[in-house]
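request received
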Amino acid sequence: MKVYLDNSATTALDRHALEAMLPYFTDKFGNPSSLHAYGREASAAVDAARDKIAALIGARANEIYFTSGGSESDNWALKGAVRAARNKNKHIVTTAIEHPAIMETCEYLEKKEGVKVTYLPVGSDGRVNVEDVKNAVTDDTVLVSVMFANNEMGAIQPIAEIGAFCREEGILFHTDAVQAMDSQKIDVDELNIDMLSMSAHKFHGPKGIGVLYIRSGVRLERLIAGGHQERHMRAGTTDTPLIVGMADALETACRDREKNNAHISALRDAFIKRVQEGIPYVHLNGGTEHRLPNNVNFSFEFIEGESILINLDLAGIAVSSGSACSSGSLEPSHVILALGVPEELAHSSIRFSLGRDTTEEDMEYTYKVLKETVEKLRAISPLFNMEKGTGSYV
Amino acid sequence: MYNDKVLKEFSSPANAGEMENPSGVGTIGNAACGDIMKMYLRIENDVIVDAKFKTFGCAAAIATASVATRMVIGKTVEDALKIKNADVVDYLGGLPPQKIHCSVLAEEAIHAAIEDYRKKTGA
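response:
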């Protein structure tokens, strides 16, 4: 049996989106920048996709900029805003749980461009405190960047409150919404979002395409020079099929949002309950209230995350882990540590991210294999005493 | 990332478990770093007649501990001390670069267990 529970890493391409894309690889292959009929045909498709995506997030078509994906959008939003700002001293407010595309860009700007960055902590529920945002802002603050929802433990951030505050203060507000597009209703005007990053492959669109939404009037320097595409703001031949696929997938995701959320969260909640009741010494990382419907993140005491992952993989189940061993770094996940989880438990964390195609049978099988795996690994853990059925880290 | 040999050794390790009244026990690593390897040796007439291990750690840590027990059984204490982490890696047909430290833990665990044996026996 094969079970895919890594939908926060990537999703399968939607069949309908694939069908919509196919003609633009072959018959309708024209460069949208060309003046002739081939170009006009492709350009009409790109315009329609741009309109569609804009409408789905409450934006205007000329505020949608196509990029190669979430990482480029995040890089562009931060570097572009900092470089366009006229302040003498530049300051960014962000959080301790951002995706590496934000984290490493901030670190780069600190090192190379003298920008000051404040990394706000989160509570054990994985949420940033709005008061902390208000207190962190100074006269030098160029930008506040807070992710919409976290990729590892699913915490949904207080975006509306932060947006309202930033609007009032006249500070730019960017959100990395890569994990949130399919399950959360997002209206950039209602939420006072000035910039938003998205990536198509997280909502059953193709890989290699994303959007940076930039509110009209926001000053941003471009990252990629070399052509007039995207209103001179992002050079590179317009990728018609990927853009068409992304718009189609987002339309489907938004149309089916309520139905999918209900289906996924019911399976997820039942799974959490079952694991908590059936497997001892397990911790749910993050809160339960403001959480993406598809996310579960557990730490299993006395055993290490990567060994759980590999064991599940050998049984056909795909998950991911916050252990240092699976990432090749020495430190376990910065996100799990930011929750206040001790290092040894952060090494034991496993993320299950469900999707619209996940079934009850999938979760039944996963629970069964997981329980066996945990027992098997505890039996060989020096921290666990099988006879007594208890363990200790000392 | 892992080759089939490593995966097989991880999923069906040899000599996993505890040992009653071992001649020597060695523990290397700590939980905060994500790896603990504990090795038990039974030594008779200076020959390692049995070995067991317990590991908290990744698939490579479990596989290398398992291989280390396979390699020491039947060896004299002196020969067991000659086992290098590279021998463990070779036995497994290679490890990803970021996992080489697991084989170092295996080598260190053998040394720690023998040191414990020597301390106990005054050998």
